[in-house]
Amino acid sequence: MEINANEIASIVRSVLNGMENGGAAPAKDLPPVPATARVAMLTAPKHFEVKEFPIPEIGDDDILVKVEGAGICGTDVHEWRGDPFGYIPLVLGHEGTGEIVRLGKNVKTDTAGKPIKIGDKLVTSVISCGECNICRLHPGETELCDKQGVYGLIPDNEKNHLCGWFSTYMHITKGSTYFVVNDLTLDQRMLLELAAVTTHALEQGKKTGRLNFNSKVLVQGCGPVGLMMIATLRTMGIDRIIAVDGNENRLNFARKLGATDVVNFKELPELAQRVQAVKDMTDGVGADFAYQCTGNTHAASDVYKYIRRGGGLCEMGFFVNNGECTINPHFDLCNKEIMLVGSWDYSAAEYPIAMAFLRRAKGMGIPLEELITHRYPLDQMNEACEMNVSQQGIKICYMA
Ligand SMILES: NC(=O)c1ccc[n+]([C@@H]2O[C@H](COP(=O)([O-])OP(=O)(O)OC[C@H]3O[C@@H](n4cnc5c(N)ncnc54)[C@H](O)[C@@H]3O)[C@@H](O)[C@H]2O)c1
Ligand SMILES: [Zn+2]
Ligand SMILES: [Zn+2]
Questions:
Q1: Topology of domain 194-342, per CATH?
Q2: What are the alphabetically sorted keywords of the record (predicted)?
């Protein structure tokens, strides 16, 4: 019988692990783990390199996950394009998921207190610092933590090379937040982070008091964020949703996910035409509420015009700084008494809410998994990011 170095390392590891567990888990029951993991490391702008690192022995508080896949986020592409965060070299990927193959003996539950075991499907979430003003004095709003961290946005370091999901194995260490999600499909798990963004935005919108069962809601921008927002609103009971975009393919997706009306800005290039179209769809008055999901500063100015007097707006389209925009404070805000709220990321505590949304959406037959239009292997992550930029697809994913 031939046996290669990887297999020997894996057998040794299994035996050691069995010993570490006091012999409770016989070595033969542990899934095999190779000696090395492959990662797609961003080493220069627009340049992923596949690198290989030894898989370390995990500590008593750590978890080793065999990666199944990860969504590519707009933030990943932003960093890939020009390293605005200054993190290069790094392993990107924060929308990932996989199966637990090793568990430190102190790890008994996930962040929600659910029992955890080898073989469980896992996702990671954000980690707040616990020390800043927000963490100390406003613990219900840790999405605003000054130093919020997340796997996949950590510069490469000697302590842990396997700290981003664009890899074959992830080494999760003490102090992380993670959730067992065995009842969600791989595709649902890869969409979970995006769902956390939109379920948080839904809650922010509700804070204005201007969102209810009778609301006609406009969603401006039908990229992954806007489309997930449409599905979130539909699942929550909003049944009149107007989607605005210039991409017919994306508007078709919007219809599938719950939009009842669409406005294509390429067909109606003048703002006044689009405002009239929206008024025609809303008994002549304008939308009761709007979600701004474009990242386009002109769109951020325009959105006020679509909203009726006494309406509400949630601005969620600028996770990155795309510049300034102008509004007319008299017409747009003051005279209309618009209730305006921003939405920023989400807290780890909102992950279970996002899971509940995905389950409910599936139960309602909303075909969210169709959002995943392209899947790429580790050695094609540059192509994957290019596809994202081209806007030919919707949600682009890495598949291990
Ligand atoms: N608030 C948050 O926590 C959060 C989280 C993630 C992303 N974001 C932000 O959400 C934005 C959207 O993300 P995405 O991944 O969906 O991006 P995307 O670029 O894929 O989608 C943006 C969409 O907006 C459309 N658009 C552009 N100008 C428009 C206009 N004038 N009117 C209507 N539609 C217009 C585009 O055609 C495109 O389909 C990003 O700019 C990102 O910064 C926010
Ligand atoms: Zn993301
Ligand atoms: Zn903090």
A1: Rossmann fold (3.40.50)
A2: Metal-binding, Oxidoreductase, Zinc
